[in-house]
Structures are given as C-alpha cells and as structure tokens.
Amino acid sequence: ILYVEAGERGTKVFLPDERIDTSLRIFEQEAMLPQKQFVLCHRAFIVNLAAVKYIRRYELELYNGMLVPVSKHRFNFVKDRLIEYLKA
What we know:
Elements: E1 3-7, E2 10-14, E3 19-22, H1 26-32, E4 38-42, E5 45-48, E6 52-56, E7 59-62, E8 67-69, H2 75-87
Antiparallel strand pairs: 1-2, 1-5, 2-3, 4-5, 6-7, 7-8
C-alpha cells in the first residue's frame, strides 16, 4: 500500500499498480494498518512512510511521483514520525 484516500463512500487504497475501492471509513482503515509504518497525514489521507521520498511543507512526495497533502496541523507530527521511521 502506498497510501489510502477517503472518498465519498469509503476509501481508495492505492497500490503500486492498482487502486482498490473499499467501503471502510478512513479511521477504520487506519486502525487496520501498522501504526509504525502508516500515518494519518491529512483528514482524508493515510500514507505509508516507506513510500515517502521527500517531505515538503504541507505535502509528501512518494517514490512513484505522487503528491499527498499534509495538514498544517499534522505537519510536525508527520515529520517527526517520518524521522522516527527512518531511524528504525
């Protein structure tokens, strides 16, 4: 899983070569993923820290070139979690 995005009727799970639509809500999806590897970076996005190439103010760039938004309120938390993940 690269990242998960909330939709109108569930979530979209993005894999390297496909997208899977689910009926789960974003917080249900978050509870199912390993907390050390995944972080809720925005109210509508969960990102796999292993897929992050760069972090910039209010966005993450993934290794596949996708940009994922980071909430202003969660930016420092996400940055700290990424640093923690990379140290492990």
